[in-house]
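Dock phosphoenolpyruvate; give full complex structure.
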Amino acid sequence: MIIVLKPGWTEADIEDISRRVRELGFKTHLSRGEVRTIIGVVGDDRAKEQLLALQSLDCVESVVRILQPFKLASREAHPHDTQFKVGGASIGGKPLVVMAGPCSVESRPQLMEIAKSVKQGGAQILRGGAFKPRTSPYAFQGLEEEGLRLLKDASKATGLPVVTEVMEPDKVDVVAEHADILQIGARNVQNFSLLKRVAECGKPVLLKRGMSTSIQEWLLSAEYVLAGGNPNVILCERGIRTFETSTRYTLDLNAIPVVKKLSHLPVIVDPSHGTGLWEYVGAMAKAGLAAGADGLIIEVHNNPAEALSDGPQSLKPDKFAKLMSELRPLAEVLGRSL
Ligand code: PEP
Ligand code: MN
């Protein structure tokens, strides 16, 4: 349910309503918009009648049921776009964000060189995997804690905040100590115990769409993080499985406007995993922004031919820099900044 306040509400009104709602056993989530201020109410629907009675308060315009199964993630509960800062980078709103770096952290020289080059190319956030979800148990599994330390050092050297994947609830604390954004990978989008745990980590969460999750399931996964008390969720469309085999996955660009309509959360596009081939990354990066995405996450490697993971989809640093120079005028046409 949402409680929509009449213009002219006071802080005392919000206090009063929040107390009444809590006494009925619900949790409140305030959304202060320029046009409308809304108190989102989540909890057991059985006390719904008593909530509806709050409509009689002078400061309340209406008490309305949220129709979507996801509540806090929905635009009904939170009409204005979510925006927040990670270090110097703005997420959501007019500025676009570009996260770039290797699929896997492989060594100190590899990460340092790539981090410096993506910074020079204009990336605002460094990506790099320390814990890697690999299809084969024989494939490189990541440098784990050592990789986290290297990411922290690369962040210090470049000033770029870091996004990296966490795969297990038990590792959330150590990853949160070293990273600025915790990535939930496509394969873990419905790992509910992991979602509950990252909700408590105090850091923003990058939630990738699973290769077989519907938009509704994806937003319900975001709801786990929001309901657990963490409002800073970034959604990432990274391609879904279809019958097509020319590319690794099929980047679902439809998802961008659909999610933008249903949710206030920022959405970025991953054209690297979405295509699986570096030569298509530029086209799909541009298409993603044109579709309304708030940013991109792009894999960059200084030596893709010898990369320990995802070499075929990684841009060399010069190609990344060229792409960035093409994205800047596009951003301007789209009314965004980069
Ligand atoms: C990655 O970012 O390297 C990764 C494994 O992504 P995804 O979970 O989208 O496959
Ligand atoms: Mn990868």
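Observed: The two ends are 37 Å apart (CA to CA).
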